[in-house]
Amino acid sequence: SKEKEAFFIVFQNMKNLFPESLSGKSWTIIFASFVVLLTTLSIFFFEGSKNTVAMTLNGKQMVVNTHADTIKELLDELDVSLSSKDYLYPKATAKVKDDLKVVWKQANMVHIVKDSEKKTIWTTADTVAELLKEQKILLKEHDQISANPQATIKNKMNLKINIAFHLTYVDGGKTQKVWTTSTTVADFL
After folding, report:
1. Half-sphere exposure for 132 (CA within 13 Å, toward CB)
2. What pLDDT was estimated at residue 183?
3. Model-level pTM?
4. Angle at 126 between CA 64 and CA 140, to 5 degrees
5. Which positions ≥6 away from 168 have C-beta within 8 Å?
6. Cis peptide before 19, with omega less than 30 degrees from 0?
């Protein structure tokens, strides 16, 4: 057939490109060198085709090169377990592209006891003050809180808040107005 004849002619012409003095050992070296060249080029192409992503993970900044398609896949590559309560920008389903900036902040569980009312919340606030603002808890001058407002939020933190109220009492016939967080007379006295 014509295809076989054309292949034979091309093969003969290629054979003429190389000196006939090349031995089998030389052919082996040439073939091995070609394989090494192709492998090296493939690695460079593979590494060069990665997207560069700037990441901030819980305040720690890093630059990552990845082939991940989505933010979720990228976080999985980094062994970051994502919770629905965490802060993530852009969203987990967003496509990864070159020069993308990703911010992830893990949510912390905080137990709040306000007077005798207990609740557990998840927050990405950095400080107690930010948490109070987030929860719309406004403290007045005489209120008591178990942590400094500038304290850093930690996971499973317990936060006790006692709201002060105005009280008038009579001591030896003298009336006094005071603020207190005491819930019983014994504690107040």
Report:
1. 22
2. 62
3. 0.62
4. 165
5. 175, 176, 177, 178
6. no
Range list of β-strands (E), the chain: 51-57, 60-66, 87-89, 100-105, 108-114, 117-123, 144-145, 157-162, 165-171, 174-180
Over residues 162-173, the mean pLDDT reads: 77
- Give the β-pairing of 60-66 and 51-57: antiparallel
Average pLDDT, the chain: 82
Using alpha carbons, select from 169, 187, 186 the residue that is nearest to residue 178.
Answer: 169
Summarised one tens digit per residue, pLDDT across range 72-117 is: 999 999 999 999 999 999 999 999 998 899 999 999 999 999 988 9
- E strand or H helix that includes residue 129: helix 128-134
Question: What is the four-CA torsion angle of 13, 18, 22, 27, rounded to 10 degrees?
Answer: -80
Which residues, 6+ apart, have CB-to-CB distance to 147 below 8 Å? 128, 157, 159
CB distance 139 to 120 below 8 Å: no
Q: Are strands 51-57 and 100-105 parallel, antiparallel or unpaired?
A: parallel
Q: How far is CA 20 from the centre of its chain?
A: 62
Residue 189's contacts (CB-CB under 8 Å, 6 or more residues apart) are none
Q: C-alpha 87: how far from its chain's center?
A: 8
39: helix, strand or coil: helix
